[in-house]
Every structure is written in C-alpha cells, then in structure tokens.
Amino acid sequence: MTGLAIAAHGLRKSYGDKTVLDGIDLNVPQGTVFSLLGPNGAGKTTAVKILSTLVTADAGDLRVGGHDLASQAQAARAEIGVTGQFSAVDGLITGEENMLLMADLHHLSKREGRRVAAELLERFDLVEAAKKPASTYSGGMKRRLDIAMTLVGSPRIIFLDEPTTGLDPRSRHTMWGIIRELVTGGVTVFLTTQYLEEADELADRIAVLHDGRIAAEGTAQELKRLIPGGHVRLRFSDPAAHRSAAAALPGAARDEEALTLQLPSDGSQRDLRAVLDRLDAAGIEADELTVHTPDLDDVFFALTSSAPAPAAVPTQPNQPQETVR
Ligand SMILES: Nc1ncnc2c1ncn2[C@@H]1O[C@H](COP(=O)(O)OP(=O)(O)OP(=O)(O)O)[C@@H](O)[C@H]1O
Ligand SMILES: [Mg+2]
C-alpha cells in the first residue's frame, strides 16, 4: 500500500441504530488533496474523526500514513494534524499563546516552539494580532489561527473539516493558497467542504457521501460527466417572440412566466449554431442566451437528493438546479 497516505476499506460506523458510514472505501495518494462532500449529517465529520484517531470505527481496515489504526494509532497520530469543524482556539489567551501551547503539546523545545510559532503567525498574516486575546479575532482570523495551530507539529497528513466555512471570498482564496502550498511541499490534505467550488478548485479527487455510502468518486471532471445536465437557455421580453421561438424550437421546455425556453445542449459550437440558425430563419431575436454546462452543484444535487439512491452512474438524473452563468 505504498504511496497511499490514507487507505480505508470497509469503514463502518453507527451511532445507536443509525448507520452513519456503511462500509466505505477511501484511498488518498500521498501529496494529493482529497475532498469528501456530502449534505449536512452525511458523516463527513465522523469520517474525519475516525481517520484522525479521535473516534474508533466499528469495522474497517484503516491505514493512515501506512499505520494500521487498530494497532498503531499512536504512530498514525504522530503524522497527522486535524483542524476540526469547530474551532480549537482558546479565546482567553492570545494567538501567540495558543500557538505556543500547541508547540508544548508537540514537545518542541521553548526555543523551537517560539521559532515555529513566529514563522506560522507570519505565514498566516497574524503577526499584528498575535498579542491580542483570540476572542477578539474575526471568524476568518480565528480560522487561520486554527489551521496555523494544526501545522505546528509539521504533520504530513492534514485533515481539514470545512476549513473555509464562514470565510469571506478573499480569506477563502488565501486559505486555498495555503492549502496548495502545503500540497506542493508534499503534504496530503483530506478536506471536507460544503463548497463545491472549493472541491473543484483544490481536490485531485472528490467523493460524494450519501446515505452512508460513496455515491460517486472521481476527479471533478469525471463527476461532472456523470450528469448530462447541459442546456441552452433563451430569455425573451416579448411574449410574442417567446411564442414564435417555442414554435421554431420544438422540444424546448417553456416557462411562460419567465418567458424562457430551455433546450438540452452539450454547449458545443455546432449545437449553438443550430439553435441560432433556427431562430434566425424564423426572424426571432432572443434577449439573452446562456449556456449552462453541468457543474459540481448539479452533480451534488443529483447524487444527494432524497430520490432513490443513485447508482455510480445515474441513468435518470434529476433536473439540475438552474443557475445562469
Ligand atoms: N457522538 C455522536 N452520537 C450520536 N450521533 C452522532 C454523533 N456524532 C455524529 N452523529 C450523527 O452522525 C451523523 C453524521 O454526523 P456528521 O457530524 O459526521 O455529519 P457531517 O457530514 O459532518 O455534517 P455537517 O455537514 O452538518 O457537518 C448525524 O446524523 C449525526 O447526528
Ligand atoms: Mg461536519
């Protein structure tokens, strides 16, 4: 199993009679970003807690950093860092003191602890705030401190449970930059997120957790291919033009209120030209034409809707949520 930072086979976990993880497999190569997606309550945090040795699984062959979690949890623990979904920052002490506390926990010498803390505070843009109580930090600052604290022990494998939830777009981008940097340095990142865009940006591979199982797994591109949700949308302001266009484009889905038409399309030049040619031939001009290619949101909605659990490749995808781009 060399080359895999995380290898889980048949991972099971129940709480009472609720099966949270129903025998899932996860393989994460070293130096890559793996993203676990799933709706609230899907079991993402549970998976993170188990793989980071905070909670024990009911069953499964679990290896982290090559160490068997059942017999070598201590050795695995030495290689990992975890940033939980909820902050581990102590608000009563300063950012710097939080960092030094972590350094102590990792048995760094006083001098080494101060060096590492200073370096990380600098890297996470927290030098100015370092001497202030963490309770006075903004959400984004706290989140940055949280992750800086995780890095004190120079872990080779990092678990980040929703690292950017609640961050503004700029802070989110900063965090993405930090994660990319870590991976460039050979660190493996196991990430959960509610933001599909984030998984799309960062992850080498993505797994969608639903009903205790992995509903789909692959690269962002592979997942998008599962959902044939591409379409062209035409919007009109003149009801008469809308009517004529509907006549010229049989098979288009009509929305009488929004005055739109929607046609299945792969978004290719040929496809678009065919639509435009027919409109031209009928002497109709649309006010707006948008091309919608399926994105991870579509995949997510299709795979995690309450409809019967889809197979790995859904044959009857749900109509994706409309987002005009
Ligand atoms: N300690 C616990 N005792 C009982 N049930 C639990 C416990 N921890 C989690 N659960 C249940 O397990 C399920 C999965 O929870 P988990 O926190 O892993 O979900 P999640 O995917 O992280 O959700 P979210 O997106 O809201 O963070 C939920 O139904 C939750 O209520
Ligand atoms: Mg969670």
UniProtKB/TrEMBL annotation:
Residues 6-236 form the ABC transporter domain. It is a peripheral membrane protein. It comes from Streptomyces atriruber. Keywords: Antibiotic resistance, ATP-binding, Nucleotide-binding, Transport. Coiled coil: none annotated. It is found in: Cell membrane. InterPro entries: AAA+_ATPase, ABC_transporter-like_ATP-bd, ABC_transporter-like_CS, ABC_transporter_ATP-binding, P-loop_NTPase. The lineage of its organism: Bacteria, Bacillati, Actinomycetota, Actinomycetes, Kitasatosporales. GO terms for molecular function: ATP binding. SUPFAM superfamilies: P-loop containing nucleoside triphosphate hydrolases. This is ATP-binding cassette domain-containing protein.
